[in-house]
Amino acid sequence: MALSQRFDGYLQPFANLILLPVAVLVSAWIVTSIAKQWMQSRKQRSQPVKVEAAAVSEKTSIIEPLHGFDWKTAPRRQLRPFKPTYHITMAIQSNIPSELITIDEDYLDRITQRRSIIATHGSTVHGCIPGGDAAVRELYTYLLSEQLPKRFPTIFQLSQDNSSCMNLATGMSFPTTPQGSTDAALRVLGETIEEDFFLLQQTPDGHQSIAFMCCFPSGFDPSTKLGKTLVEIHAPVPSYEKIGSSMERFFAKLEVGKSVKRTNWSVQTHTELFNCQGNHITGDDTYEHDEDVDIEKTFLRIELQTLTRLPKTSAVLFSFKTYLYPVRQIKEEGLGSAFADAIEGLSKGNAPGMWTS
């Protein structure tokens, strides 16, 4: 029986990055478990380099306000980026500054969860190296004083003297310029927006992670990425060498006022957004209990990622919002065959290492 047929009828039983440069990344042990049962069925640091920031054009810097926006009724995006054959590429699309931050009906629940994660996990989910403070403060000031109140005036309102920003959804008010430590500024951002982010600065050794806020990691410890370069961060990624140089050049040439976006996807067999381990398996690692998976708790996990350059510090902002879609929903949409083909297609493109056999 074909894999797509098995998926459309629901496989019974269904098998139990920062900055990942792939359009599609399926968590390896999940893919292997799914594939195993399907196939058995068939067969039986350094100092920053100064980057000249380009002038921001009036057109690209405009933030278009969403007047009358009601986050409580705003539907979450429905993203389906999987393709039948996987090729490792940057797969970027143009974006606009207005869409740097997105808000939908899940906003308050997600922010409440993020606040709890920050309080519980501390330095695992946020941090900054010496030299990263200025970029954090620039991002903080831009979001609290400009982007959020301009884009979402029904949620974020500035005080008369513009010294504070009130979040009407959470009831919290924060100063529009950071008043305390860099870590405190990161925590405010983590409790204000859903997007996780890493800030990177160009150095002689490549772009280096200088600060981060990441409440929803997918199978990695974000604190271990701090201070590392793109090459070091992506060392576990199969075939990264095919696009590593291109990524460095793209980051270096990214202009102020321009923004790009991309997506990646994975599969997880639990409902957790915060997951520092357990989504990936590589090399000679092993896994057990393929069959112990509840299809009702299996999700397609998608990150909507953006890249933007900050104008003052020239740091690159890599941000991403995480979406979870029940696999049952994918089947009900009639995309079961396409999804199954995409999983099989991991082994057919230019990065077969994405498929763990």
TrEMBL record:
UniProt KW keywords: Membrane, Transmembrane, Transmembrane helix
Transmembrane segments: 14-35
InterPro entries noted in UniProt: HODM_asu-like (IPR021848)
One Pfam family from the record: HODM_asu-like
Superkingdom as given in the UniProt entry: Eukaryota
Protein name: Uncharacterized protein
